[in-house]
Amino acid sequence: IPEELHDEMFHALGLAGGPAARSALMEATSSSDLSTANHLQAMAALKDMPKVSPDAVTLLDSIWQDRSDPPTLEDRAALFASGSLLDRQDTPQALRTEIEESLRAALEDAGSSAEVSAVLGAIGNTHDADFADDVRPLLDAEDDQTKIAALEALNRIGSAPPPDEALDALTAFSTKRGQDYASNALKLRAKDATDEDIQWAIFVLNEPDTIPVRRGALIEFLGILSNRPLARQGLIDWFLYETEPELLRLIGRYIPAEELP
């Protein structure tokens, strides 16, 4: 398996859970057939790894302090593992405070967009909304890499931006990754949408240059709000103009056939 896919593989094992996945991750943390970066990736994915020790926290922090520019896979894996320790109930409070301070310092000291993105990935691993005030200003960064990483982190820590900002992000980002995270933010915060947000979503949906991936995100947003007459009518009106079969079926998930033209 190519090394660039290892992070996704370890993350998938962590999500899967269960004795078999745990055993595989435990073995990967010390396997001589894997690199140090792989050991750290497995550690980050292992939610119930052995008791967190101060030495482990010190080791992870020292790897990041000695990072390359741009950060290597090993550097980023150490940082992500640190973030994951905050997502564990058994991490002692003293160590939690140390890790929190370390991540905030890393974010402040990050010099390149690659470093900032790595720290934001680690913050996402914490699932801790207390970092929201540290991350939110980076939505206004000059480069898209930082903006997208900030948006992803906010989604993951439960502090997704409000619908108007998510709609702006959806139209601003040209990459699939950016559009996916903007779409996630829209879904997470859909219930907070104002009538103005719904009207803007309908307007963008009807723009001739709105590409299918954006249309899909807007349809899902309006679909979640289909109990509101404005959003419901927007989907009904758009049905005649949609050309993608998959998106027509998506509208049908929210609007019964008898209501469609």
Description:
Helices cover 67% and strands 0% of the residues. The chain has helices at residues 6-16, 18-28, 36-45, 54-65, 73-85, 93-109, 113-126, 132-135, 144-156, 163-172, 176-189, 195-206, 212-224, 229-239, 245-254. Helix 12 runs antiparallel to helix 13 (212-224).
Structure summary:
The protein is 67% helix and 0% strand.
What is the terminal-to-terminal distance?
49 Å
Beta-strand share of residues: under 5%
Low-confidence stretches: none
Query: Mean of residue pLDDT?
Result: 87
Structural class: mainly alpha
Radius of gyration: 21 Å
State the helix count. Answer: 15
Q: What oligomeric state do these chains adopt?
A: single chain
Question: How does the SSE layout of this entry go?
Answer:
Blueprint: H1 6-16, H2 18-28, H3 36-45, H4 54-65, H5 73-85, H6 93-109, H7 113-126, H8 132-135, H9 144-156, H10 163-172, H11 176-189, H12 195-206, H13 212-224, H14 229-239, H15 245-254
List keywords for this structure.
mainly alpha, 67% helix, 15 helices, 261 residues
